[in-house]
């Protein structure tokens, strides 16, 4: 089986090479087949691999395939080596499967775009790097994938590069994630210095005897890794790039900025869980960051008017949930939420893409409305996604994953009522803005006419995803209702069990509260936004300030602009022509001045020359008399 | 009491100094030449003195050489003086400043 | 005077007769060409004679002269330079209005003087040689009396030279007064027995002044630029090479005799002079637009470098000879270019005249460039090993101060050499260079000789080993 | 012997070009190309034929010695070990590309141009294999003079100033080095009575600390001026931006490398203690260089000047790595030499192509080039990413190795250096955005995309950089022996 591993990333990279080299010569159908086909193939392989994995567990629970030795110097040796275990399996399944759907969708969505080939080339490259990221067996190779996805995200956000704002968004995304990446890199250095290897399994084995729990080194390492994760996963305070990243085409947002890349941080932390367990402090920090992020982003989502920005903020906040789960040690819950989230958020973005496409690239939800009748399919699928996002009890995948997180945020060993309350508030807000989105877009009266209905090729992925975002949750049920733990059982081959507090109130109570809160959110949304009043509420001057504040994403951009960007630009501007250069020019000037002084002596006067000779004599004589 | 040779040497030195002062102070080329002649002769005198000190003829031999040389020098010098007067209509050295930085 | 001694002096006698022969030729109204060729032959005769008598060397001709390998080397150097100068002179004077014939008398007399300097071991011979040299130089400098202020240059040189020789004589007198002898060796001996008195030191000082004047050492350098500019190009070349070589030779000989390098006082004096030369020369040249003046300044700097070798005593003689050789070849080729470019009216000494020379006549520009690189001491040219050997000598004697100053000042120097070079390679002006009518043979001859010089520069630059060995061999006896 | 041929071919080819050029420029170009390719094929063919394996004991693959100036103990001594070999290969690779990319750029005075180009290459090749200090200095200068002409004659508007600056800076360093060489020569001579400039002889000279420090400084200054190290870097931006494309390519790709090579070959082995003494200072300066160069690069609007400052920044890593005295770091440094040569060289080549098309170097007047030239855009993206150290491109491997092993020498410096990575992202993306992205501004007809000749150039560079990024092991093994040797001493 493990011989199959290389093919999973190989097909997309192949597609990338073909498209990037000959893309301009190929016809669109061919491009589409190559672009989508390669990903579908690797999805297929992944599924085969998955089945064989689930039937007969490989020795050590790992498929491992060494390709070649990348570089080895002294005691540092790094291989290009792929490995798949239970955790990775979940990720590559999502990457390839959802990826394949999105590719199919894009084949139609991007049909009218001039740069068809470039789009698919970048998408394939992305899939490949993302696969390498999760399949790498050492951190350097993972870093390769890590940077690779960053590159592709940059390329795809700035896909329509003629528009300067898109380029700015792309740069912003790349730079902010780069900051995180650098922290991660430093983390790797420290790890290598302490453990002496960068091989993941090696690290995970040696770490416990290498570090005392909570020792300064391990805390530092985990913090640095965490910083890397925060950058990629758009967590506070590095979240500002994600909303702007929506400048890219919708499929890109769906694949990169909802389903896969932004969850790389989650993967990293889950992957290195042993280290993080050794440093409780970091765990707490992760939990707090997650809680804060989910709240902050949720609030911002409330005030957005751009459909994709709403979804972007909701993504941030959902990843916040995952971090919260990781923080409290509910590893499987976090991964499970990633799993479901991938489906419904991808779905939402794709559906949003259809809507935007249908309405002449209209992004403002308040210019939409009344689409329920005119785009029924989209409406249904979007509804499914929205339900999952706001975690409607029992009928949505979101419920099962999010409910678990809520429960663990209270009950897990290092869970805490405060975190729980935050999460609960987050759930409420989520429900609220999701309802707002639904009502404003699909109810009310028409504001923009629909000029094109989505083609079959775009609908099918929507339907598949919609189905999944309803049903995906059913593989994992809470303990108190038909205790079904397919998923957690699977991932817990790699990840540790979630430790619970000793004495706990009944879980049902919490589920009830959660469900009620969600419904309350929906209900409030209904009151506020059903029909006219919502609009008025939206424009009420009393709330302008707060709305403005939230609309700007809590003004983080302005803050950073003031703190970092402006000073940096200022410094570079003033020193454009290198101060050190002045010094050398000064020396040169001095030389020339000397020259002009000396040449005064050459004024052609014979008498002066005689005086010169005399001066010489006197000098020599005096020297002699002195010595 | 210093011997005669050194006395003469002092005289020569004084002469030499006088010549030097002359070269420095006179603007007229001819006078400069004359002053140089004085210096040369001063040197010659010094040689004679030295020769007498060591009871050797060399000093006087040297003096003869000096005379010859001085003559040659002056002859060329005067030729140049003529040319200068011919071209610049003056013998003032301070006017000879064509060549300079 | 024994037969052998006479034999040893043969080259110099031939040199002397050369002048007389020229006088006779003039008397018989021979043409410029004939004179030129005869002179050429005579000079070759000198070299041959030198070769012929080489195994009778070294030979003392007491009390005045000594002919040894050292002298042979320097004389050879001088004759070599004169050969080239003569060739240049022909081109230069061929279509000048003045009658060039007497010029050669003076030229050969001056050469004789300089040659005598190399073999002199006595104040008298030193004095005679020096005066022979300078008196003929007065006339040579002012030879073209109606062109670019030659007369002014001659006058300045005359007055200052006469002054300096007055100092020289007075210094000699003082030393004679102290030591009772005018032979270098005797003086040296007298010095060891009866230490150095004030008078003696003053004598030395005054002599140094005269020497320094002839070598244009700072602060006796002020005449150099004016004279270089005023004199006809070949004469300038002569001053820059022949006269300085001779004087430097006698300086070395004198220093060896009286062990100047052991005398801390003299060392201090020369060190100061050297540093002053290196810095002043290079700084003065920085912005100079007149090539002849610029070469004057650079030669000041170069003799500063030479002093470094001189200060390092006997170890420095070999490097000195090599340096003088490289230096004279370089300067001669440079002045050769200047001569070739000079017009009947004025010398080609303005830098602007050289704009884009490379694209007009690549060969000339190449020669000039290589010469300049050699002056700057860039590898592949003779200047590099020369400077390198001097540095070697300096470092060997742990004269770090001098070495560092040498390095830094040659960096300064680099700037103005590069300035000229980049002018040579700049985009050419639209004005075309004027055609000249010359005796084709001599024109060709000059060209070929310049090319030969260039090749010599390159050869010395890449394989200095051979010459170094030869020099060492000569200095042995 | 092949080493001699390698150099001779270039010298002869150069002269031939000059002579032929008056008749026919095309032939002259071809001669130049053939000469370089032959020179390239010599060591390559030799390698393929003998497949030399570098054993830890003896790193020397080839050794050739002949008398030169015996009176001074100067010999014509060439030798090649793994380090020299990889650098030689780089030299000729870039040399070939340099000839190719000046194919149409240089239209008049072609002969003299190629003469200088080939002689510079010969000098560089000589520097990499010279094992006699005098000879080394000789080649050191030989590569300067033709380069001076390349800049001063064929350069841009401000060429003279740039050329002076370049020559004076490097010459100052060179002469100081000459003094140091002489000092070594005499100290060793006085100790052993054997006066020689031979590298291997001088290696086992015992120096007292003060002497060692001063002599080492002499060498080091010469080399760090070439490298260049802040604050001695000022010649570089002018020279790089004014030089013709091939000139910039050679300057950035090769001349800078000679500095690093000098440090690795001479400074470390000859003065282990002395260089260890100033190690921390050098590392500090290296880090300063990284950051300072990046800041300046970000500020520039002249494309070539921008790229020039990026190499100041990248060479900082070299200094940092060399003076960490770690095997991994040194490997990283060598890798950095190669990859920087390729990536920055490629960027300069592109700047040249853009200049040929747009007749400007000002990035504010560019933009939207991707629309006009998608291929160049893609390649440009690739090398921009290389210069910001994206994995799977060579530069990442280099910088990663350097940083990971400097980390346990001095974490603080390493962290600051890593900040340099973020800055590198800043300026690299700026290039991308200003040049290739955005609206196509040129009012005239859009410039043509890569021609076949240009394809060859960029393809070669691309393959090289990707290969080094994904499979650097051969290089690492090649220089392994040298590096371990140095680290042990």
UniProtKB/TrEMBL annotation, chain A:
Annotated membrane topology: Multi-pass membrane protein
Bilayer-spanning residue ranges: 6-23, 30-54, 86-109, 116-135, 141-161, 173-192, 212-231, 252-270, 282-303, 310-328, 334-356, 377-400, 420-443, 455-475, 509-529, 606-626
MF GO annotations: NADH dehydrogenase (ubiquinone) activity; NADH dehydrogenase activity
One GO BP annotation of this record: electron transport coupled proton transport
Domain NADH-Ubiquinone oxidoreductase (complex I) chain 5 N-terminal: 70-120
Primary location class: membrane
Name recorded for this polypeptide: NADH-quinone oxidoreductase subunit L
Automatic annotation (TrEMBL), chain B:
Purpose of the protein: NDH-1 shuttles electrons from NADH, via FMN and iron-sulfur (Fe-S) centers, to quinones in the respiratory chain. The immediate electron acceptor for the enzyme in this species is believed to be ubiquinone. Couples the redox reaction to proton translocation (for every two electrons transferred, four hydrogen ions are translocated across the cytoplasmic membrane), and thus conserves the redox energy in a proton gradient. NDH-1 shuttles electrons from NADH, via FMN and iron-sulfur (Fe-S) centers, to quinones in the respiratory chain. The immediate electron acceptor for the enzyme in this species is believed to be a menaquinone. Couples the redox reaction to proton translocation (for every two electrons transferred, four hydrogen ions are translocated across the cytoplasmic membrane), and thus conserves the redox energy in a proton gradient.
Protein's organism: Niastella populi
Pfam family for this entry, one: Oxidored_q2
Taxonomic superkingdom: Bacteria
Keywords, in A-Z order: Cell membrane, Membrane, NAD, Quinone, Translocase, Transmembrane, Transmembrane helix, Transport
GO molecular function: NADH dehydrogenase (quinone) (non-electrogenic) activity; quinone binding
GO BP terms, alphabetized: ATP synthesis coupled electron transport
Enzyme class: translocase
Subcellular location: Cell membrane; Membrane
Membrane topology of the entry: Multi-pass membrane protein
Family listed: Belongs to the complex I subunit 4L family.
Gene3D superfamilies in the record: 1.10.287.3510
Protein name: NADH-quinone oxidoreductase subunit K
From TrEMBL, chain C:
Annotated keywords: Cell membrane, Membrane, NAD, Quinone, Translocase, Transmembrane, Transmembrane helix, Transport
Gene name tied to this protein: nuoN
Subcellular location(s) per record: Cell membrane; Endomembrane system; Membrane
Source organism: Niastella populi
Recorded GO CC terms: endomembrane system; plasma membrane
Pfam families referenced in this protein's UniProt entry, alphabetically: Proton_antipo_M
Subunit structure: NDH-1 is composed of 14 different subunits. Subunits NuoA, H, J, K, L, M, N constitute the membrane sector of the complex.
Transmembrane segments: 6-27, 34-53, 65-91, 103-120, 126-145, 157-177, 197-223, 235-255, 267-287, 294-315, 321-341, 362-380, 400-420, 441-467
Molecular function (Gene Ontology), one example: NADH dehydrogenase (quinone) (non-electrogenic) activity
UniProt name for this protein: NADH-quinone oxidoreductase subunit N
Reported function: NDH-1 shuttles electrons from NADH, via FMN and iron-sulfur (Fe-S) centers, to quinones in the respiratory chain. The immediate electron acceptor for the enzyme in this species is believed to be a menaquinone. Couples the redox reaction to proton translocation (for every two electrons transferred, four hydrogen ions are translocated across the cytoplasmic membrane), and thus conserves the redox energy in a proton gradient.
Keyword Disulfide bond: no
Keyword Ribosomal protein belongs to the record: no
Any Gene Ontology biological process: ATP synthesis coupled electron transport
Membrane topology reported for the UniProt record: Multi-pass membrane protein
InterPro entries per record: NADH-Q_OxRdtase_suN/2, ND/Mrp_TM
EC annotation from Swiss-Prot or TrEMBL: 7.1.1.-
Automatic annotation (TrEMBL), chain D:
Domain NADH:quinone oxidoreductase/Mrp antiporter transmembrane stretches: 130-423
Chief location of this protein within or outside the cell: membrane
TM segment ranges: 27-48, 85-103, 110-131, 137-154, 166-187, 211-229, 249-271, 277-299, 306-325, 337-354, 375-397, 409-429, 450-471
GO molecular function: NADH dehydrogenase (ubiquinone) activity; NADH dehydrogenase activity; ubiquinone binding
Compartment list: Endomembrane system; Membrane
InterPro entries documented for this protein: NADH_Q_OxRdtase_chainM/4, NADH_UbQ_OxRdtase, ND/Mrp_TM
GO cellular component, one term: endomembrane system
Keywords: Membrane, Transmembrane, Transmembrane helix
PANTHER family: NADH-UBIQUINONE OXIDOREDUCTASE CHAIN 4
Name of the featured protein: NADH dehydrogenase
Species name: Niastella populi
């Amino acid at each position: 089986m493990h011989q199959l591993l290389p093919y999973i990333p190989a097909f997309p990279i192949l597609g990338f090479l073909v498209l990037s080299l000959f893309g301009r010569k190929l016809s669109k159908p061919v491009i589409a087949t190559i672009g989508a086909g390669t990903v579908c193939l690797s999805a297929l392989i992944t599924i085969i691999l998955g089945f064989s994995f689930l039937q007969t567990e490989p020795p050590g629970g790992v498929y491992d395939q060494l390709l070649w030795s990348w570089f080895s110097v002294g005691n540092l040796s790094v291989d290009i080596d792929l490995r798949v275990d239970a955790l990775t399996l979940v990720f590559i399944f999502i990457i390839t499967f959802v990826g394949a759907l999105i590719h199919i969708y894009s084949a139609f969505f991007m049909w009218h775009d001039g740069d068809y080939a470039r789009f698919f080339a970048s998408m394939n490259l992305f899939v490949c790097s993302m696969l390498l990221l999760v399949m790498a067996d050492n951190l350097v190779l993972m870093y390769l994938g890590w940077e690779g996805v960053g590159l592709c995200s940059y390329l795809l956000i700035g896909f329509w590069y003629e528009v300067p704002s898109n380029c700015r968004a792309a740069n912003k995304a790349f730079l902010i994630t780069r900051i995180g990446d650098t922290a991660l890199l430093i983390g790797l250095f420290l790890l290598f210095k302490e453990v002496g290897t960068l091989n993941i399994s090696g690290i995970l084995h040696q770490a416990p005897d290498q570090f005392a729990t909570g020792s300064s080194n391990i805390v530092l390492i985990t913090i640095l890794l965490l910083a890397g994760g925060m950058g990629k996963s758009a967590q506070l305070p590095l979240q500002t790039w994600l909303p702007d990243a929506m400048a890219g085409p919708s499929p890109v947002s769906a694949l990169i900025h909802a389903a896969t890349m932004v969850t790389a941080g989650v993967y990293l932390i889950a992957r290195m869980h042993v280290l993080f367990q050794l440093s409780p402090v970091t765990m707490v920090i992760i939990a707090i960051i997650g809680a804060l992020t989910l709240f902050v982003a949720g609030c911002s989502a409330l005030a957005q008017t751009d459909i994709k920005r709403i979804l972007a903020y909701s993504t941030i906040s959902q990843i916040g949930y995952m971090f919260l789960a990781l923080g409290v040690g509910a590893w499987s819950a976090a991964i499970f939420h990633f799993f479901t989230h991938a489906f419904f958020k991808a779905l939402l973005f794709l559906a949003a893409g259809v809507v935007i496409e249908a309405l002449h690239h209209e992004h403002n939800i308040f210019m939409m409305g009344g689409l329920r009748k005119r785009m029924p399919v989209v409406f249904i699928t979007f509804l499914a996604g929205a339900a999952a996002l706001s975690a409607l009890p029992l009928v949505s995948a979101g419920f099962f994953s999010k409910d678990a997180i809520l429960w663990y945020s209270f009950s897990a060993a290092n869970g805490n009522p405060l975190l729980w309350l935050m999460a609960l508030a987050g759930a409420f807000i989520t429900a609220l803005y999701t309802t707002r989105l639904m009502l404003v877009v699909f109810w009310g009266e028409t504001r923009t006419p629909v000029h094109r209905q989505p083609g079959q090729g775009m609908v099918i992925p929507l339907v598949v995803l919609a189905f999944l975002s309803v049903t995906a949750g059913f593989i994992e049920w809470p303990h108190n209702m038909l205790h079904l733990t397919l998923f957690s059982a699977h991932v817990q081959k790699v990840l540790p069990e979630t430790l619970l507090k000793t004495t706990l109130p009944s879980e049902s109570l919490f589920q009830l509260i959660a469900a009620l809160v969600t419904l309350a959110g929906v209900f409030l949304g209904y009151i506020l936004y059903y029909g006219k009043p919502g609009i008025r509420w939206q424009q009420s001057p009393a709330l302008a300030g707060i709305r403005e504040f939230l609309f700007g994403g809590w003004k983080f951009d302005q803050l950073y602009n003031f703190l970092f960007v402006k000073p940096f630009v200022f410094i570079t501007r003033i020193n454009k022509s290198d101060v050190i250069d002045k010094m050398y020019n000064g020396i040169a000037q001095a030389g020339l001045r000397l020259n002009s002084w000396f040449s005064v002596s050459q004024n052609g006067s014979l008498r002066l020359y005689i005086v010169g000779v005399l001066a010489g004599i006197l000098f020599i004589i005096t020297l002699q008399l002195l010595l | 009491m210093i011997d005669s040779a050194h006395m003469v040497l002092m005289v020569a030195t004084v002469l030499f100094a006088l010549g030097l002062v002359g070269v420095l102070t006179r603007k007229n080329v001819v006078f400069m030449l004359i002053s140089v002649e004085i210096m040369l002769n001063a040197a010659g005198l010094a040689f004679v003195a030295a020769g007498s000190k060591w009871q050797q003829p060399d000093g006087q031999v040297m003096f003869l050489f000096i005379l010859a040389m001085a003559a040659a020098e002056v002859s060329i010098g005067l030729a140049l003086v003529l040319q200068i007067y011919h071209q610049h209509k003056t013998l003032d050295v301070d006017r000879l400043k064509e060549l300079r930085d | 005077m024994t037969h052998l001694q006479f034999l040893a002096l043969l080259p110099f006698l031939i040199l002397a007769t050369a002048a007389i022969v020229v006088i006779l030729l003039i008397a018989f109204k021979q043409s410029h060409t004939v004179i030129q060729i005869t002179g050429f032959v005579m000079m070759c005769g000198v070299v041959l004679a030198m070769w012929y008598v080489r195994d009778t060397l070294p030979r003392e001709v007491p009390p005045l002269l000594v002919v040894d390998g050292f002298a042979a080397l320097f004389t050879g150097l001088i004759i070599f330079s004169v050969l080239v100068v003569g060739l240049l002179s022909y081109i230069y004077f061929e279509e000048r209005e003045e009658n060039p014939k007497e010029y050669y008398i003076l030229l050969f007399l001056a050469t004789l003087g300089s040659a005598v300097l190399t073999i002199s071991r006595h104040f008298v011979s030193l004095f005679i040689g020096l005066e022979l040299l300078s008196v003929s130089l007065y006339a040579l400098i002012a030879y073209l009396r109606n062109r670019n202020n030659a007369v002014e240059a001659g006058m300045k040189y005359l007055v200052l030279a006469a002054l300096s020789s007055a100092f020289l004589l007075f210094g000699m007198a003082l030393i004679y007064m102290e030591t009772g002898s005018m032979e270098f060796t005797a003086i040296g001996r007298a010095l060891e027995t009866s230490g150095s008195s004030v008078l003696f030191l003053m004598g030395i000082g005054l002599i140094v002044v005269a020497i320094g004047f002839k070598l244009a050492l700072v602060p006796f350098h002020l005449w150099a630029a004016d004279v270089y500019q005023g004199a006809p190009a070949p004469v300038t070349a002569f001053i820059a090479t022949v006269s300085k070589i001779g004087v430097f030779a006698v300086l070395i000989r004198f220093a060896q005799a009286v062990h100047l390098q052991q005398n801390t006082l003299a060392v201090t004096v020369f060190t100061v002079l050297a540093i002053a030369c290196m810095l002043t020369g290079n700084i003065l040249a920085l912005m100079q637009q007149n090539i002849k003046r610029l070469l004057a300044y650079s030669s000041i700097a170069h003799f500063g470098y030479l002093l470094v070798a001189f200060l390092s005593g006997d170890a420095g003689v070999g490097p000195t000879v090599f340096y003088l050789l490289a230096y004279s070849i370089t300067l001669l080729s440079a002045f050769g270019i200047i001569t070739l470019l000079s017009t009947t009216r004025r010398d080609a000494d303005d830098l602007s005249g050289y704009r884009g020379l490379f694209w007009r006549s690549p060969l000339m520009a190449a020669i000039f460039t290589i010469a300049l690189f050699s002056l700057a001491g860039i590898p592949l040219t003779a200047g590099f090993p020369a400077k390198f050997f001097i540095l070697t000598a300096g470092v060997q004697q742990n004269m770090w101060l001098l070495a560092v100053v040498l390095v830094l000042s040659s960096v300064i120097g680099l700037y103005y050499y590069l300035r000229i070079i980049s002018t040579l390679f700049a985009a050419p002006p639209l004005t075309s260079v004027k055609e000249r009518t010359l005796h084709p043979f001599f024109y060709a001859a000059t060209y070929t000789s310049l090319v030969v010089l260039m090749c010599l520069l390159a050869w010395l630059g890449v394989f200095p080993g051979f010459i170094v060995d030869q020099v060492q061999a000569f200095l042995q006896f | 012997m092949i080493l001699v041929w390698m150099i001779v071919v270039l010298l002869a080819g150069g002269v031939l070009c000059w002579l032929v050029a008056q008749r026919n420029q095309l032939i002259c170009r071809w001669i130049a190309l053939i000469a370089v390719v032959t020179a390239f094929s010599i060591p390559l063919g030799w390698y393929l034929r003998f497949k030399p394996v570098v054993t830890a004991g003896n790193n020397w693959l080839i050794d050739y010695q002949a008398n030169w100036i015996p009176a001074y103990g100067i010999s014509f001594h060439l030798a090649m070990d793994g380090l020299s070999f990889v650098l030689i290969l780089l030299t000729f690779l870039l040399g070939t590309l340099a000839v190719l990319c000046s194919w149409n750029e240089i239209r008049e005075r072609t002969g003299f141009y190629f003469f200088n180009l080939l002689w510079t290459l010969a000098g560089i090749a000589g520097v990499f294999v010279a094992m006699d200090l005098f000879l080394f200095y000789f080649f050191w200068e030989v590569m300067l003079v033709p380069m001076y002409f390349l800049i001063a004659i064929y350069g841009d508007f401000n060429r003279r100033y740039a050329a002076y600056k370049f020559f004076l800076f490097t010459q100052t360093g060179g002469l100081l080095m000459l003094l140091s060489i002489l000092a070594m020569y005499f100290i060793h001579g006085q100790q052993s009575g054997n006066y020689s400039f031979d590298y291997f002889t001088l290696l086992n000279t015992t120096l007292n600390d003060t002497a060692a420090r001063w002599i080492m400084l002499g060498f080091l200054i010469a080399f760090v001026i070439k490298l260049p190290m802040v604050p001695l870097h000022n010649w570089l931006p002018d020279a790089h931006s004014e030089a013709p494309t091939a000139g910039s390519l050679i300057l950035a790709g090769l001349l800078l490398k000679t500095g690093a090579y000098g440090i690795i070959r001479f400074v470390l082995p000859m003065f282990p203690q002395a260089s260890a003494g100033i190690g921390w200072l050098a590392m500090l300066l290296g880090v300063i260089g990284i950051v300072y160069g990046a800041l300046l690069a970000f500020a520039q609007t002249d494309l070539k000047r921008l790229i020039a400052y990026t190499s100041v920044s990248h060479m900082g890593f070299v200094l940092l790595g060399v003076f960490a005295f770690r095997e991994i770091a040194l490997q990283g440094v060598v890798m950095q030499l190669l990859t920087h040569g390729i990536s920055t060289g490629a960027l300069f080549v592109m700047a040249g192509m853009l200049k040929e098309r747009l007749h400007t170097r000002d990035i504010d007047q560019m933009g939207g080039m991707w629309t006009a030239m998608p291929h160049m855009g893609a390649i440009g993206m690739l090398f921009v990413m290389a210069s910001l150290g994206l994995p799977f491109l060579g530069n990442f491997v280099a910088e990663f190795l350097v940083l990971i092993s400097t980390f346990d020498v001095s974490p603080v410096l390493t962290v600051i250096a890593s900040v340099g990575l973020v800055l590198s992202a800043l300026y690299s993306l700026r290039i991308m955005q200003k040049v290739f992205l955005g609206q196509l501004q040129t009012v005239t007809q859009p410039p043509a995309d890569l021609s076949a000749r240009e394809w060859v150039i960029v393809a070669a560079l691309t393959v090289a950089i990707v290969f080094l990024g994904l499979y650097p092991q051969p290089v690492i093994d090649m220089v392994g022996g040298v590096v371990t040797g140095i680290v042990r001493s």
